[in-house]
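Hey, I was hoping to borrow your eyes for a little while. I've been staring at a protein lately and its backbone has me curious. You're getting the sequence in one-letter code plus the fold written as tokens. Would you mind checking whether the tokens look sensible for this chain? Here's the protein in full, and shout if anything looks odd to you:
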Amino acid sequence: MPDAYLALGGNVGDSRAILDRAVRMLDDSKDITVTARSSDYLTPPWGMTDQPPFVNLCLAIETALTPHQLLERTQAVERALGRDRLAETRWGPRTCDIDILAYDDLTLSDRDLTLPHPLMFERAFVLVPLAEIAGGKVIAGKRIDDAARQIDGAGIQKLPAQ
């Protein structure tokens, strides 16, 4: 089965509980198996900075879904957890955001999905947790742990296990 990496985050409601539920919802399907989960991290907002901090984490998964099917599944989980993409502000507060960072070594760009994720190397809130579970992985020619060391991770705090 193909390997993929996901980034999850949220800052509305009990974010850790919501993200735990998202992980369970993804892992409960026959088409997705979570193979690794990072710690939870408290991170400063990115893009729109006048909002509460986020909780972020990353997952490594194996999936029988195609990239577009995986996108449909992640968006269904977001909706089930209260996200309304049409009513929200871009990069604004949200209950649950799930991004597909990479899917095997696939490069893809269409109107619905770009792989690898085009902003992942600009986001410490992605690279820090991703390096915890896939530091040696090379995506788009860059080793994740190298990229994580090169980005400013100021304000990112690893949260204690629950």
Observations:
- The radius of gyration is 15 Å.
